[in-house]
């Protein structure tokens, strides 16, 4: 889908006579169709520069970037960018346009008929849990921050792009709205199957959303791995320190569902937890209620087994596990 081949990018240092600063240094990476790839690293690691190279908002100095096997410089800039949705932290909705007109801006540029645009706007509003009858005629200033961000991502998806690029899209939101939108984005990725490339500085956000995490440092790839692999098989001490040496075990629990370790036992006295809760949530429940096991419910009122604390901590000690 997207391939970086020995990409490099330098910037002038700003001081006369000094060597140029390398933002990206000989980087190679493959992003497969349908993946949710999160680029993460400290400030100055090159993650935003790498993202912007995909749609030529930044040019690279050396190497090649391929989109479906075709070098990106062989596309006209407009053609390339119309194949990619782009969502950023500052949503950038047009203030004097309705929600419907904001979402439909790229389809209009592509010459879609009005009926198709209207249907696509309704489809996307429903996807983001915004009632079309209520929200399509609203103005941006009538929306909450979270609703504006939803509309911004919907706009990026409106023309059914091959790729969705997201640069710190939830960084300016408060923690409650941010958590809600993270779950929404995970659901939408599963529903749409889109290829998504996202930049964040938040390791917990990366672990929650990504199918593949790319950890960068000084313009180079330190490790490419699934969230679970990053936690159980860190490449070196830099990865361990970046992820959080003191709570890697807890982070691992956030990636696994409670029902994965359920024992098929009859319901016992005491509290219940949804079967699709994470093991991290289960540990919190067990600690809060001072119990050693908890019932699991299937979400439809049915019993889905019993989860025991001993099983949770036993799986953390399995051979090969780290952290």
Please, could you describe this protein's structure?
The chain has helices spanning about 45-55, 75-80, 100-105, 105-110, 115-125, 130-135, 145-155, 175-190, 205-210, 225-230, 235-245, 250-255, 280-290, 310-315; strands at about 1-10, 20-30, 35-40, 60-65, 70, 85-90, 165, 195-200, 210-215, 220-225, 270-275, 295, 305-310. The longest helix is centred in the middle third of the chain and has 18 residues, at about 175-190. α8 links the parallel β7 and β8. It is about 35% helix and about 25% strand. With about 325 residues, the chain is of the alpha/beta class. The protein contains 14 helices and 13 strands. Strands 6-7-8-3-9-10 form a six-stranded mixed β-sheet, sandwiched between helices.
Radius of gyration: 22 Å
Q: SS-based structural class? A: alpha/beta
Mean pLDDT: 91
Strand/helix succession: EEEHEEHEHHHHHEHEHEEHHHEHEEH
Distance between the termini: 33 Å
Poorly predicted tracts of residues: 319-323
Beta-strand residue fraction? 15-25%
Q: Helix tally?
A: 14
Name the helicity range: 25-40%
Q: What's the count of strands?
A: 13
| Physical arrangement of strands within the biggest beta sheet | 6-7-8-3-9-10
Principal-axes shape call? globular
Sheet of most strands: 6 strands, mixed
């Amino acid at each position: 889908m997207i391939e970086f081949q020995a990409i490099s990018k330098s910037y002038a240092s700003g001081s006369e006579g000094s060597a140029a600063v390398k933002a990206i240094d000989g980087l190679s990476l493959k992003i497969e169709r349908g993946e949710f790839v999160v680029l993460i690293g400290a400030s100055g690691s090159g993650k935003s520069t790498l993202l912007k190279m995909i749609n030529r908002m930044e040019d690279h100095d050396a190497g090649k970037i391929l989109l479906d096997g075709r070098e990106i410089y062989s596309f006209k800039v407009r053609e390339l960018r119309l194949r990619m949705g782009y969502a950023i932290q500052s949503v950038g909705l047009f203030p004097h346009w309705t929600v419907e007109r904001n979402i439909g801006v790229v389809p209009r540029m592509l010459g879609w008929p009005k009926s198709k645009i209207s249907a696509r706007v309704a489809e996307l509003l429903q996807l983001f849990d915004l009632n079309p009858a209520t929200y399509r005629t609203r103005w941006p200033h009538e929306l909450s921050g979270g609703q504006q961000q939803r509309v911004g991502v919907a706009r990026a998806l409106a023309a059914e792009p091959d790729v969705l690029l997201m640069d710190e899209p939830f960084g300016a939101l408060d923690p409650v709205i941010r958590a809600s939108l993270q779950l929404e984005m995970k659901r939408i990725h599963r529903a749409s199957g889109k290829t998504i490339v996202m930049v964040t500085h938040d390791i917990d956000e990366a672990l929650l959303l990504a199918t593949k995490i790319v950890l960068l440092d000084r313009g180079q790839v330190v490790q490419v791995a699934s969230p679970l692999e990053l936690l159980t098989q860190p490449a070196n001490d830099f990865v361990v320190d970046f992820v959080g040496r003191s709570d890697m075990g807890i982070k691992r629990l956030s990636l696994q569902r409670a029902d994965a370790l359920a024992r098929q036992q009859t319901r016992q006295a005491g509290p219940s937890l949804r079967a699709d809760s994470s093991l991290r949530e289960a540990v919190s429940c067990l600690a809060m209620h001072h119990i050693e096991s908890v019932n699991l419910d299937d979400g439809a009122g049915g019993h889905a087994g019993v989860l025991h604390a001993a099983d949770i901590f036993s799986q953390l000690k399995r051979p090969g596990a780290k952290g």
